[in-house]
Amino acid sequence: MSTRREESQDRAIVRIAAHLPDLIVYGDFSPERPSVDYFDGVLMFVDISGFTAMTEKFSTAMYMDRGAEQLVEILNHYISAIVEKVLIFGGDILKFAGDALLALWKVERRQLKNIITVVIKCSLEIHGLFETQESEEGLDVRVKIGLAAGHITMLVFGDETRNFFLVIGQAVDDVRLAQNMAQMNDVILSPNCWQLCDRSMIEIERIPDQRAVKVNFLKPPSTFNFDEFFTKCMTFMDYYPSGDHKNLLRLACMLESDPELELSLQKYVMESILKQIDDKQLRGYLSELRPVTIVFVNLMFKDQDKAEVIGSAIQDACVHINSVLRVSRGQINKVFMFDKGCSFLCVFGFPGEKAPDEVTHALESAMDIFDFCSQVHKIHTVSIGVASGIVFCGIVGHSVRHEYTVIGQKVNIAARMMMYYPGTVTCDSVTYNGSNLPAYFFKELPKKVMKGVADPGPVYQCLGLNEKVMFGMAYLICNRNEGYPLLGRDKEIKYFMCSMKEFLVSNCSRVLMYEGLSGYGKSQILMEIEYLAQGENHRTIAIALTKISFHQNFYTVQIFMATVLGLDTCKHYKERQTNLQNKVKTLLDEKFHCLLNDIFHVRFPISREVSKMTTFRKQKQLEALFMKILEQTVKEERIIFIIDEGQFVDAASWSFLEKLIRTIPIFIIMSLSPFVDIPCAAASAIMKNRNTTYVTLGAVQPKDIRNKVCLDLNVRGIPKELDTYLVEGSCGIPFYCEELLKNLDHHRVLIFQPMEVEEKANMTWNNLFKNFSRPTEELNIFTLGKEEGNEEVCNLASGVILKNLSPPASLKEISLVQLDSMSLSHQMLVRCAAIIGLTFTTELLFEVLPCWNMKMMIKALATLVESNIFDCFRNGKELRMALRQNAASFEVNYRSLSLQPSEGLAHGEEEELRELESEVIECHIIRFCRPMMQKTAYELWLKDQKKAMHLKCARFLEENAHRCDHCRSGDFIPCHHFTVDIRLNTLDLDTIKKMAKSRGFTTEEEITFSKIETPKKSELFAENLSPEEIKERILSFFDIVITKMRTSEEDIIPLESCQCEEILEMVIMPLAHHFVALGENNKALYYFLEIASAYLILGDNYMAYIYLNEGERLLRTLKKDKSWSHTFESATFYSLKGEVCFNMGQMVLARKMLRKALKLLHRIFPYNLISLFLQTHVEKNRHFYYLNQQAQESAPPGKRKLAQLYRQTACFSLLWQIYSLNYFFHYKYYGHLAAMMEVNTALETQDDFQKQTIDPSAGVAVGPFYIRRAHLQQGLFLFRLPGPHALFR
């Protein structure tokens, strides 16, 4: 039975029905729209408090692990409990409206009395659910319930693509009013419900001045059996599960496949949900904390009571709203009756529907809807609220009944603006700032106190996108600041200076075009050019366009000519009219002055000649006049015309500008974003003109980003970690850098402190690398407001992990637009790559991609490389070089490109894609172009899916997590893998050996050492020896050890160069982060220590320091672990810390760390002279003991013991060097002891040199020492060794 139930629940019709009430699933409606149905019933309105606040808390969380999945788990934990209660008591969930729900018990009128009792019982039990439950995530969940009963009307409306339904009538109004009266944990009965109920069963409390009543409890007679009463009541419910289905919550779970019904039900569900159902995806798949734009539309009617009348008005409005939204990729999410009106909740930016200029489209749509609905018969008032920001978008409810909904403060703000500012289109400040529309399209409204909204910020009225142009409103947006230089754009300014020079000495036009994506700083470049262009004998006119400029014919030329004629400063049309008469009286007959009326908003009398002209002829006359005016003007002074956002130049203006540059010497400088569509013929002609310089803007360089940050924060330095985060995260795009800084400031991550003199600062591990990244010298003259001695540096708040920060909403939105514009297969590839990390190999990507073949993956990667989603590199060296420098600006010669035949051009594009595919095959390293894309795509995964993918990656990578073949493989910390069980793959070495032996294979290979005798007795540490004699004796001792080893053929070092750095970056570092994501902290710690050791070998102390700090965080989480392996990891951690301190010249810190490490390794190094001499005596005895035991056969030390001995030797080696570097007399005794303890530790492993087993899984001899005399001599006695890794390879 259970198997059958599972199969039925997987049917598409059942999954669709879960999004709809029984009222629709089993409804038999007329096909005409609108259609009306009447019935009686009881309504329950449940309002759940606390969810909006929690959504806001999650949406503003700093870190990426506070995702939508946790939120949806918490929401559904509470909501599903309420839904389950309603279904058990026979209710039908009509709608989920954010954090509220509306339920219906549809019965005949004579059954209302008993059903009201059932519903009250249900309501009281819902309250009981939350009285004993502990709140999660600090959420205090309480519910308010309103009940109403009586006549209900249902209205079904829509178009051929979508259907919607509403319940309307007095009962619907009553249930909302009842809920509004309720306090927390109240059940309120509407007046009609109180009239119809069984009063003998209910104890109530009167509400002052209200006919509605509050329910205290049910008071049934002692003989009353509720179960029998309930069973009897349910017989009147048409679709209550009974008989064989009595254990079901909902009868719709057992719907049989019915193509006709399925097609009918699909119209009530959003398209994105239907795609999810078709793909059989999990309910949580579409749950996201996502930046969207909410458009709340409210329609108030002249006659609310007549369903037939308002039905036609709602139908007309709905059809129009749906058609408007479809064009701009918006969707109607909900329709419901709201405070005496019908409300449409429309959303722009749902998953898969994110589009560029979303906010602008939303405002345009809002104005269109407002204008149309205001004209619809019977609609009295139209009110629209628009708000933008992060909200929860997801499926909320129970597995058998749920809906896709939006919850968040922005939803509330849009709803409140809609109600508190009736008859207007209002928007919040985020929408206003993100609209890219001129300020004069908006009017700030007086603030009002709005229920449930603490501080909505400024509220603006959108005046419409067809307002008349106001002169003087099109100046450049940016204002130049003398104290804020244009950073990193010297090359771009040089293009201008060269073009300017050519223009001034020649008699022909010049055009300079800067193309770049939004955020590259185009406006700042033009602002600087406007300043540099000022001079005698030429005039500079600068304007900035907006999206609406493109839709206004001749707008660019209109603004240009208004400025040339001096009309932009006129305050009244009469002043403009006088100016025009003076300027054109010699160029234009007075009877034609009226041609200027529309374009300059003046009122010259219309002549008969002009009234007979066609629009085309009027345009030509105007163009001829403007050309004459400009010819006259340039004789007196040259004109430099600067246009910001040139992609918004209208077609008529492009045509005029193209004629202008052929006729008159003029210098046009323009910034523009890449054209979305093919530019018009005139624009193309300008781009191909021989006098046009077309520059594609590149990113600014890392040093310029650093300078910008220091300038923005007004500090003398920033931490290296912050520098790396901003340089990498911004990709050299100024806007990205600004948004990242704002995000850090919002989360209070940045701390400003007085700059300390480095000599005065006490040196500790935490400030070992507190040498800040500082701005370049030329920037010093621009730093403001700080006197010398009062200068500040920026630091990070304690415990902040920058790489785990969630991306700012603005940057996340840009990434979502790109993602949603991709095909589903490309989206899947990007999301899989995001799990692997910022940089990955094609081999690993192929491993984690589900059901892809290699050809398919290569083709997709080539397309994504072409789209600038990924970059590809042949090797790690090429990648590191690319990261040091961003792509610079370059000139594009469109004239040369235009000479290519169109057939060849198309063929060239295909050839280019094939070349890219070949390049991807060669380049096995791929990297995201923008880290924000990787973070955004990563956040889209569900928690369980993430874990499965991380595990897959870790299994693949661990096979290669060792040093390169050139370095004899093995661990970066020799014998490290013997100490910790870090293998994920189940086939361990012992299992392999057993399998091999069972097949008769030999599994062990022996390295044989020649039995060269070592001295039985040694005077290695005899008293009164000079340092030179000690040196020679130690070297002689190791010479004997070295000669005992005979290199086998298998140990011959490969000829290729060392690949350890690439392995470190592509394998071990990602592996550590995969284990962190999996919560395997002990394995992650192992790899962080390996990374730190690798960086020490590569000579990068700072990166070793960074990863040791990462390891320290994990050590704290594992502090309760008292195992041997954890103790060894702690000792390794301190020994590596000691090595970093030694390399940085901090000998006191180094000694402290090394002593800690030795203590954990059970070797105490003395602190005072008494213990020094005692320990020296002990070590001499040990030394002679080991030498005397040499001839005797003894068991070699175990694998763990070898790892421990290596660590001890590494620590003693460093201590010997530290004490040898000091000139204090007594320090030579400490150095002498350290050397003796080092040799004794080596002797302890000596028996193991006679015969060793090679461990095939490690690929390295178990003995820890590969010692070369030259290295030892150079390190021990010339003190040039960076650490023990050069001693023992």
From TrEMBL:
Its main location: membrane. It holds the Pfam family Guanylate_cyc. Its cofactor is Mg(2+); Mn(2+). The lineage of its organism: Eukaryota, Metazoa, Chordata, Craniata, Vertebrata. It comes from Lynx pardinus. One of its GO terms (biological process) is cAMP biosynthetic process. GO terms for cellular component: cilium; cytoskeleton; nucleus; perinuclear region of cytoplasm; plasma membrane. CDD domains: CHD. This is Adenylate cyclase type 10. Its EC number is 4.6.1.1. It is found in: Cell membrane; Cell projection, Cilium; Cytoplasm, Cytoskeleton; Cytoplasm, Perinuclear region. Residues 42-179, 341-418 form the Guanylate cyclase domain. Catalyzes the formation of the signaling molecule cAMP. May function as sensor that mediates responses to changes in cellular bicarbonate and CO(2) levels. Has a critical role in mammalian spermatogenesis by producing the cAMP which regulates cAMP-responsive nuclear factors indispensable for sperm maturation in the epididymis. Induces capacitation, the maturational process that sperm undergo prior to fertilization. Involved in ciliary beat regulation.
